[in-house]
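Weekly puzzle thread! Below is a chain. First person to post its structure in token form gets bragging rights.
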Amino acid sequence: MILPTKHTNFSESLLGFGSYVLNKIGTAKTIDALWNEYQNDYVNKRYPAKHSFDNLLLTLVFLHSIGAVEEQDGGVIKCN
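Winning reply:
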């Protein structure tokens, strides 16, 4: 689900995961690098919600559709 509900934590929604992903993108990063960074943060309890790789892809599609990220040289970057 994109938006949290009263029964879903913000971190479990794609919107919450999108805010996490945006914070992780400083310079252009590949999707694999973002996934590895998320897995590391989840294992070390720096991000509370478990997400699948599919959720990462859906989150990136969502962020791209609202103009928050774009593709550049095979990586993902933030839009200004």
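Puzzle host: Confirmed. Bonus trivia for everyone else. The CA atoms of residues 28 and 73 lie 8 Å apart.
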